Amino acid sequence: MKPFPRAEISGDALKANLKRLRQLAPQSKVMAVVKANGYGHGLLNVAHCLATADGFGLARLEEALELRAGGVSSKLLLLEGFFRQSDLPTLVAHDIDTVVHHESQIEMLEAASLAKPVTVWMKIDTGMHRLGFTLDQFEAIYQRLLACPQVAKPIHLMTHFACADEPENPATAEQARRFEQMTAKLPGDRTLANSAATLYWPATQADWIRPGIALYGVSPVVGDLGRNHGLEPAMELVSQLIAVRDHKAGDPVGYGSYWQAKQDTKLGVVAIGYGDGYPRNAPEGTPVWVNGRLVPVVGRVSMDMLTVDLGIDATDKVGDTAVLWGKALPVEEVAEHIGTIAYELVTKLTPRVAVCLE
Ligand SMILES: *Cc1c(COP(=O)(O)O)cnc(C)c1O
Description:
Helix content is 27%, strand content 22%. By secondary structure, it is α/β, with parallel strands linked by helices. The longest helix has 14 residues, at 11-24.
């Protein structure tokens, strides 16, 4: 018996997506971004399926240590760097690269005494204004890192785009121009492109691309689909009907009774709710796939259940499968109905959802 709700993860789709991204960026190495539990797909599952990636990008030291404990020996990079002085010996012991984006991190490096220098990716703020050193700071900081014996040479270089998911927005080309201006003559590897830039701004692919969402088969762009780029959804979020009920015209359903049936119908109760990470604010009409068709969510999503309108002629039965998103119902479309992005849906699943690698 398979548990439900469950997130079925296709290892074949993950591998095919990596292959597709290599086709799209043939000159670049791939830093597969697997933070946030592999975007909800299971950190170790994903890393093992993507074992041929050139490295993995993470947001937390704990994530990197989980990969090392799971036998992953690839290059690992902390995309926001280390947070505490005491992290530095751990980086060295486990051969983990770090981003350096702030002077406080340089102070910690200068004060440390380490068995080996740390591999550093200097983050440059070319316009996102969240993390990184500005054009004005660049030269002095670069020299300070060069002079720091705890920093391995050459220093690698990175930046991150604010608007790469807007194919018409000129800000990305401007950020890339600034990065080029600062780094053109320097040794060290360079990386700029997340998924959106890899797909929409190929000129920014450089030495390494850093795709996250695209590896999972999902488009980073609202109104677009992964499959338009030859990517396959890697996650199918599956549950079951636990009740099918005759429902009278005018009767409400669920908390607040705010939806009433316009005509007699049958309602299906699906065992998934916000306690599983399916958003409570999914409005009436959000699609769910049941027995080969899309049916609308009606009434409020509750903690453990949601209700769908199956229609008066429905022949669906208790125990039938309901797919909340997957191949037949792209997560990008569900996200648009709910007013969020696919990233949030896949990363917010709770531990109650079994993640099953197929
Ligand atoms: C999360 C992250 C990525 C991956 O972004 P996607 O949009 O999922 O491709 C790349 N680079 C950095 C610095 C990140 O934090």
